[in-house]
UniProtKB/TrEMBL annotation:
GO terms for molecular function: calcium channel activity; calmodulin binding; metal ion binding. The chain crosses the membrane at residues 332-356, 391-409, 430-451, 457-477, 498-517, 559-580. InterPro entries: Ankyrin_rpt, Ankyrin_rpt-contain_sf, Ion_trans_dom, TRPV, TRPV5/TRPV6. This is Transient receptor potential cation channel, subfamily V, member 6. Residues 657-691 are annotated as: Disordered. It comes from Salmo trutta (Brown trout). The gene is TRPV6.
Amino acid sequence: MAPPLARSAPGELNHWWSQLRFRLQNRKGWNEMLDETFLLQNKRTNDIPLFFAAKENSAGCIKKLLDCASTNIFERGALGETALHVAVLNDNMDAALVLMDGAPELINEPMTSDLFLGMTPLHIAVVNQNVNLVRSLIGRGADVATPRVTGLYFRKRRGGLLYYGEHILAFAACVGNQDIISMVINAGASTRAQDSIGNTVLHILVLQPNKTLACLALDLLLARDVELDQAVPLDMVPNYRGLTPFKLAAEEGNLVAFQHLVNRRRVVQWNLGPLTSNLYDLSEIDSLVADNDLSVLELIVGSQRREARRILEVTPVRQLVSLKWNLYGKHYFRLLLLLYLLYIGTFTLCCVYRPLKDAPENYTVSDMDKTIRVQKTLKESYVTHGDNLRLVGEMISVLGALVILLLEIPDMLRVGAKQYFGQTALGGPFHVILIAYAFLVVLLCVFRVSGVQGETVVMAVCLVLGWSNVMFFARGFQMLGPYVIMIQKIIFGDLTKFMWLSFIVLIGFSTSLWMVYMTQDPNSLPAYRSFPITLFSQFELSVGLIDLPVDHTITTPPIVHVLHCTFSVVSYILLLNLLIAMMSDTHWRVAQERDELWRTQVVATTLMLERRLPFCLWPRLGVCGLLYGLGERWYLRVEERNDPLVQKMRRYVQAFSKDEDQSKEREETENTDTSKGPGSPLIRPKHRGGIDGNRKSLACWQMIRHSALGLDVEQEEPEDDQEVRYV
């Protein structure tokens, strides 16, 4: 069973129920199955003589066992492996050579278990980067094109630690060994092979965590693919989702791979000192150029990864978005805001001046009902000239609601309801508000025509929804847009959690108070005359809308004072302060992403306008390559100034500020650790005290001196525990 994924509330409930049924059936989980399988594999390796000899690299024992008639060379372990798999898995060259010479049938034998299905010895040798073993396997006839690893352990899944594709060339590219890559391609591996989900080797490289190594392997593969002279370049081959490696890098937020592919496609026009003029290919970036496929801009907006939004800062995406918004987008959007304000204002006037007449005698049944006016019938509603004027406004309101439905529903079906309503950048809850408003307006029309009494409630909800939707247009202004997102996150995050806690507290205290007041006269204290009224009164009290509803002129049981005091402490002191703290944290987190959220909103709004406005209102930006001998592609010319001195100074400032912050954090960590006493576990940092800070400062000053003297500082490959400096 695969590890759990990030789910919504209904999905989480469904997953919890499936997990419960799974456990009740006494079935084993994913991790438990892996533990038992690997332990069994280790046991069988030690129990089987041929496997044990291959594991211990005992070539002499293997020769004797192969000469023995009772030895089964095709015997399998717990993972479906053969003896050659065991030898290659342990990098035992001598044992592997003896097995390949004595039992050549094992060279192309794949593993047969569900976890490692399809894995050959060559797959293992490539992943372990054993060049000599790879050369020996290929020299003895190992197939490099056909074998595919389709086992569960190597499939692309969330929580998986390894995704190297299925083919041997993909494994070689992911480990980044150029010698092995060239060796496998020369042996006949196809650079265009696709796995079960359509990913080519370039797609798989985009998904790797080591981005620098992936880009080097990507260049080598593209260079080898050019030699084949294919009609479609390798980096333009889509997977089964229709995503090329370029688009996949944008969706995954792989900034390094995306920038690398952008630079490979650009055309440098000229260089003049620090100035550079480049032509950037817009084929997959611009939504107007990317025909019917999803463009990079649409993928970024639809992605839930924060890293994807950072691609909007990459050249030429930043320049393209800026041109689209400043030339056309913001003007159309603000015109749309003006039209919507006129529309919702018209609907509001129609509601305010809706047809009413005096209530007939004996209309009310209870003395508490103070109704004096009721709704007119259909024939009575349209008599005077004022009624006819209101009819025009009502027709505009209904037609506007129908237009909203015709625009929103196709977009919802195209994107999918979950993403359409769940993505904050796409509008999120505002689409729900707008569609609900439009449906209710149409329902109002039905009520008016059929003469149903009850349009007051529907009309009130429509007004709230309609005017709340005005906040959607705040995304057209840089100052207001991020704050609307902040309100959404607070409502659907912090406030939702707070309401759940408040509901539990309200139910408990309201029930307790009702148990006391249910024996009292209902007229003595109206705030507690029934359980629903008690619940509502406690809610009003919790938010400070009313004073404490206790009448001291009548006898009050002491438990009532105890309950009120306890409720005040829990509600006012605990829950409200908890809500304030949660909202402060949300405000801080959204403030960190302010610029990113604004750019994402601009892109989402621009794409929405492009889909809904006629094409003639959106001139295509850039230049056509056909006019200048660059093929059937559109390009955007960007002039860039690369001042090395300014860039170096910025990097120096960042390096020093980073060192100071890290040294402070280490000092705080040391103080915290030493305060724990001798009995507590102590985690010591690698570099301690002021010596480390002085060493780093000297290193930074040394870099400045080398830069000023024009000396080249040798760049070492950063390890996991090293710090990378950008100079």
